[in-house]
């Protein structure tokens, strides 16, 4: 696709692009900071799907940090729609080159990060995480940015040995709450997702490292078509219950995994805000009779909100979660 196919961009777009470069670079995949700041913007010049994805990320981030009236939000949504539309066309191209593969993967990551700014973004998140995984698999032999679980874990091998110890009582309460869902499980994808979530809790009782490694492996199940179709089916209420627990596990790992939630990166706080919004969206859509299955995880979100609100000064979600879940020792 040549540069002539790119549309003209507004001054607001330029502001969003500047903000992306200076404040909204994704910190994942680990070790790809230079690519996000230098190589990927160059690839975006003649690839509209990537340019719109980066502009959308900059706009969402800018809207979150400095715009109370949401003047950048519509711009962000417009770029997101254009990025998704043109990305679909790019993926369908059977003559994709290596540089196109890197650009496609980068666009998938940028769009995935945007999902945290959408109250119902969990479904988009699932779709795009799967897209990142499949694209990474397709281009892993070409030296592009990668984030397969094994590579991610290899980069943080030393840090994994120094993870703090969780409060066992909290983890056992989580297992007990999750087990109430067992009678509702019917399909293979439901059972597999349940086992994966339970294995994360059980791993945390053994050691934080084991729990984290099992959490990362949860994404493997999203790659199969059957599991993917079940995950994104909003009418499958059992899977929505399981997704609520998955979101809680994502949320609670923030103080355990600083490489995933860096203190000096505002998007870390945005991600945690987004997870809370996702949980609220699932809760609001559930029939009253099913909410009893989520009493414990919902109480954790509520307690974290109260702790955060009660703290003076600059209060972060990680601080509240540290109080709730960390025992103070290393494994």
TrEMBL record:
Q: Which InterPro entries does this one have?
A: Fun_TF, Zn2-C6_fungal_TF
The organism sits in which domain of life? Eukaryota
Give the signal peptide, or none.
none
Tell me the GO molecular function terms: DNA-binding transcription factor activity, RNA polymerase II-specific
Its name, as the record gives it, is Transcription factor domain-containing protein
List the source organism. Answer: Exophiala xenobiotica
């Amino acid at each position: 696709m040549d540069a002539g196919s790119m549309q003209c961009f507004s001054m607001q777009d330029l502001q969003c692009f500047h903000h992306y470069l200076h404040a909204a670079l994704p910190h994942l995949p680990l070790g790809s900071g230079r690519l996000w700041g230098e190589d990927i913007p160059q690839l975006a010049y003649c690839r509209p799907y990537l340019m719109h994805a980066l502009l959308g990320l900059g706009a969402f981030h800018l809207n979150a940090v400095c715009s109370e009236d949401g003047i950048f939000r519509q711009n962000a949504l417009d770029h997101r729609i254009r990025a998704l539309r043109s990305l679909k066309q790019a993926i369908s191209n059977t003559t994709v080159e290596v540089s196109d593969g890197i650009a496609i993967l980068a666009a998938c990551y940028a769009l995935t990060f945007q999902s945290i700014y959408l109250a119902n973004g969990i479904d988009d998140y699932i779709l795009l995480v799967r897209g990142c995984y499949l694209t990474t698999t397709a281009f892993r032999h070409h030296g592009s940015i990668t984030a397969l679980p094994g590579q991610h874990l290899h980069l943080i091998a030393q840090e994994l040995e120094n993870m703090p110890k969780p409060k066992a009582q909290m983890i056992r309460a989580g297992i007990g709450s999750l087990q109430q869902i067992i009678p509702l499980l019917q399909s293979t994808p439901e059972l597999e997702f349940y086992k994966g979530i339970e294995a994360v809790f059980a791993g945390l009782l053994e050691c934080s490292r084991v729990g984290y490694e099992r959490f990362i492996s949860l994404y493997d199940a999203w790659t199969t078509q059957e599991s993917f179709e079940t995950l994104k089916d909003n009418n499958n209420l059992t899977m929505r219950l399981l997704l609520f627990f998955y979101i809680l596990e994502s949320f609670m790992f923030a103080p355990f995994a600083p490489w995933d939630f860096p203190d000096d990166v505002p998007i870390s706080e945005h991600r945690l805000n987004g997870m809370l919004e996702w949980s609220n969206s699932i809760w609001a859509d559930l029939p009253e009779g099913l909410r009893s299955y989520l009493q414990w995880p919902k109480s954790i979100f509520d307690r974290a909100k109260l702790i955060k609100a009660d703290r003076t000064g600059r209060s972060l979600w990680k601080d509240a979660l540290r109080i709730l879940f960390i025992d103070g020792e290393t494994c």
